[in-house]
Amino acid sequence: MIQLINVHKIYKGNGVQTLALKGISLEIAESEFVAIMGRSGCGKTTLLNIIGCMDDFDSGEYMFKDINIKELNSKQLALIRNKRIGFVFQAFNLINEMTVFENVEVPLGYAGMPRKQRKEIVLEMLEKVGLIDKVKNYPSQLSGGQQQRVAIARALSNNPEIILADEPTGNLDSKNGTEIIELLQSLNNKGTTLVIVTHDEKVASYAKRKIILNDGIIVKDTGAY
């Protein structure tokens, strides 16, 4: 499903170049649950952003199924992000001025889906994450765990082929964090490909495969193909 071949990423600023990724080669199959780990600054989030088509890379090749990502323009990349990839972030990234229903609806609106169909899907997703009774609430009226559930419902709304999660339990207490990672695991058990960045060994223990980065290099992969 995902294939990276000798991918390099360089950050430039103030006359200084930082090599964030140093020749990453990686394959992720459909329905895998992969945890990307490593110390702060090792390149975890950079790698996830490249997989999610949110960040460009300087050299190498990235194939998303049969698509060469390097050959796409910005509009084509946006379509992949909107229709084929779901994102879950540590900070939830909900819009405070919108209700729970409206937050989940956002990507469906971008996709041009008719209003009636959007409503059906939003309610289905909120039912799936156990928040059907919170449709009219605003993010500020929810707990951290509930807000992350809304974010997961939003990530699922376009029926993505892969979910990318960056420290999805990082802002949650132990109980809520466990509930969120178990929810993500249940989605993976139903066939959704899941890639998470985490520094938490407990969270990573739910994954079927761990990839460890150090200074932009994969130093360990427990399930390399």
TrEMBL record:
Record family assignment: Belongs to the ABC transporter superfamily.
Pfam families with a match to the protein in the record: ABC_tran
UniProtKB keywords: ATP-binding, Nucleotide-binding, Transport
Organism: Clostridium thermosuccinogenes
Entry GO CC: membrane protein complex
SMART domains reported for this sequence: AAA
UniProt GO MF annotations: ATP binding; ATP hydrolysis activity; transmembrane transporter activity
The ABC transporter domain, residue ranges: 2-225
SUPFAM superfamilies, per the entry: P-loop containing nucleoside triphosphate hydrolases (SSF52540)
Stated name of the protein: Macrolide ABC transporter ATP-binding protein
InterPro entries (UniProt xref): AAA+_ATPase, ABC_transporter-like_ATP-bd, ABC_transporter-like_CS, MacB-like_ATP-bd, P-loop_NTPase
Classification via PANTHER family: CELL DIVISION ATP-BINDING PROTEIN FTSE, LIPOPROTEIN-RELEASING SYSTEM ATP-BINDING PROTEIN LOLD
